[in-house]
Design brief:
By secondary structure, the chain is mainly alpha-helical. Helices cover 83% and strands 0% of the residues.
Length: 197
């Protein structure tokens, strides 16, 4: 399954350009944070587009700048949460009839059934759990918007959930290349030792 999307490719190219510019010459306070801010903006755009999971961009961005993974995680979580709140507002103002006409497949999916059941029973706690897991977020946002849960609680639930999820992804993405290299070199040493014997 090919998960590559032109929007993600454009975002990564833009991030590489920002990254290369921030490494040259003296940095201002804004330029020092340009790369993580660009990742956060891309996270917000990808959340709004509902096309590419932000996690794929996040992992690639962290692999490019592993030493800044925590800042990238925090700002990406903020960008994604802001994008989610924008979607919440759009769904809230569209109303049920326009949503059911625009997203008929979503409203008949298992994700919709689960999201409506969970959000009905647990409110924003369910949204936090959904945001912290790889479960599709859009059905939960639609139902949350229709349920008219307080926007502050929705933002906080999305932010905390994304911090948890992206924090786990970021932690492993920042450490994976070193861990993989260590495992690979140990395996190579074993192979060379076995060949010498």
């Amino acid at each position: 399954m090919n998960i590559w999307h032109p929007l993600a490719g454009s975002a990564l190219l833009g991030l590489q350009l920002v990254d290369s510019r921030t490494n040259a010459g003296p940095r201002s306070a804004l330029l020092a944070h340009a790369y993580p801010l660009a990742v956060a903006l891309a996270a917000m755009v990808l959340t709004l587009s509902m096309t590419v999971p932000v996690a794929s961009l996040l992992i690639a961005a962290i692999l490019l700048r592993r030493e800044r993974w925590k800042e990238i995680v925090v700002l990406s979580s903020l960008g994604s949460a802001l994008g989610g709140v924008c979607l919440y507002l759009v769904f809230h103002h569209l109303g049920w009839s326009q949503i059911s006409g625009s997203y008929p497949d979503v409203l008949q999916s298992k994700a919709w059934f689960n999201a409506t059941r969970w959000v009905s029973a647990y409110g924003t706690w369910a949204l936090l759990a959904i945001a912290a897991t790889p479960v599709p977020q859009t059905p939960a946002l639609i139902f949350t918007a229709i349920s008219r849960l307080p926007i502050e609680q929705v933002f906080l639930a999305l932010l905390v959930g994304k911090l948890v999820k992206y924090g786990i992804y970021g932690f492993f993405a920042a450490r994976c290349p070193a861990w993989f290299g260590h495992v690979l070199s140990a395996q190579c040493r074993k192979t060379l030792s076995a060949e010498k014997a």
